[in-house]
Sequence to fold (153 residues):
Amino acid sequence: MPNAKTNERARSRSAARLAAVQALYQREMEATPLARLLDEFHQHRIGKEIEGVTYADAEIAFFDDLVRGVDARCGEIDAAIAARLADGWSLERLDKPMRQILRAGTYELIARADVPAATVISEYVDVADAFYAKREKGFVNGLLDGVAKAVRA
Fold:
């Protein structure tokens, strides 16, 4: 049975995933330099209150790994995603939040073998729930499942 410490770590990692998707979105929209972006999230977002909304505490090292990892391996990640899109679809055709959800999830599947694939997929379906309706959550589930089968076989 999971203990309080395990549950706290899981919540902290969930918050890190959501924050990473938000940071990656900001980086794509504003071309914010990586060091400044990480500092901004550390100092002003993660665990802070902004306009009456409290952002959850997140595991900083995990957040940093996700953001830096997606940035460093974006070409490899985008190729893995593009290979699983339907004919006629491209990564550029997906909206920006969806691209960041898929990139973060794909990075975690490729680079974080310490995290079970089922956990990664479930977590990014939950992240998608913050932005989208049921159909898009199913898309995230299916695409990340395909990535997992390819990279963790």
